[in-house]
Amino acid sequence: MIGDNLLPLEELDSVYMDRGTFFGDGVYEVVRSYNGKIFALDEHIQRFENGLGAIGIKNVDIGKIREKVVTAFEKSQIPNAKIYFHLTRGSGQRRHDYTGDFKPNFFLTVTKLEDSSKYKKGISVITHPDWRWKRCDIKSLNLLPNVLAKQVAAEKGAFEAILVNESGYITEGSSSAFFAVFDKKIHTTPLKDNILPSISRKFVIKACGNLGLEVIERHLKPENAKKADELFIAVTTKDIVPVIEFNSIKISNNQPGETTLKIAEEFLKFTT
Question: Has 139 been annotated as catalytic?
Answer without folding.
Answer: yes
